[in-house]
Specification:
about 110 residues, mainly beta, 6-stranded antiparallel beta sheet, about 35% strand, globular
Length: about 110
């Protein structure tokens, strides 16, 4: 399993700060964890297992997420847990890495 600690893209810092994550918006949020468990394009197969966050909270408020592009093509599926708003996988990885533009949590578009 790959772990992607503290992704930094453009001016977006998602590193750890006193056990909490500071998302790109600069707002202090609680601990969360997400992981990519499935990809839908062969070119992304090496990204299965990519994760970010505090693994100790992955079983807290668990959900399934899927990330899509503007053409409604699903690129990624994964799990998320902890104190999250649902946009973390999209903001942290799926948008900057593959150009995804929206995310669904448990089938509901955010």
């Amino acid at each position: 399993m790959k772990t992607t600690p503290g992704l930094i893209n453009d001016n977006r810092d998602t590193g750890e700060l006193d056990g909490f994550f500071q998302p790109r918006h600069g707002i202090l949020m609680g601990k969360y964890y997400w992981q990519i468990t499935r990809v839908f394009l062969d070119s992304l197969k090496d990204e299965i297992g990519t994760s970010l966050g505090d693994e100790s909270v992955k079983g807290t408020k668990p959900a399934i997420w899927t990330a899509y592009d503007d053409d409604d093509v699903c690129y990624y599926m994964g799990i998320i847990g902890g104190d999250y708003d649902g946009f973390e996988p999209l903001d942290d990885f799926c948008m900057p890495n593959a150009g995804c533009t929206y995310i669904k949590i448990n089938g509901e578009r955010l």
